[in-house]
Design brief:
147 residues, 67% helix
Length: 147
């Protein structure tokens, strides 16, 4: 049987070991949080530049290009080329593959590989992106009041 002093020493050693483990876990968590903030800041800068470039090439957001925000980054699309849009619309296919083809033809940002990864993570994303392309192509135009 252990003495009172031995038990107190054992308890103190266990508490010290636990405190070191907690401190190490807290340090690791702080490092991970800082790495995430750095990555987010880098992504935000890259995305801001991509938006600026897209506006310079295709026109204002909402008329020349569209920007969509996702939990994994933004997607920038341009207005579809008339011939590609006509082929899409002539087929009158609302299939996901047809929508994806139209969206991919308008992809400005991110890269195709990054878009593939994004599409794997968010497969339903194609629907709002397709709607955005259609809006850029003129579906969002509203009729003015007639006499």
């Amino acid at each position: 049987m252990a003495t009172k002093q031995e038990l107190q020493e054992r308890l103190a050693a266990l508490q010290e070991s636990q405190a070191k483990a907690v401190a190490a876990a807290n340090e690791a968590q702080e490092i991970a949080a800082l790495e995430l903030k750095c990555a987010e800041a880098e992504r935000a800068g890259k995305e801001a530049q991509a938006i600026s470039d897209a506006v310079g090439r295709f026109g204002a957001v909402g008329t020349g290009c569209a920007v969509f925000s996702t939990p994994h980054g933004i997607v920038i699309l341009k207005c579809p080329e008339t011939s590609f849009f006509q082929r899409y619309y002539d087929g009158q296919s609302a299939s996901v593959s047809a929508q994806e083809a139209l969206v991919r033809s308008c992809l400005v940002y991110p890269s195709r590989a990054e878009f593939d990864d994004l599409f794997e993570k968010l497969p339903a994303l194609i629907i709002p992106l397709n709607n955005g392309v259609l809006d850029l192509a003129g579906f969002a135009v509203k009729q003015l009041h007639s006499k």
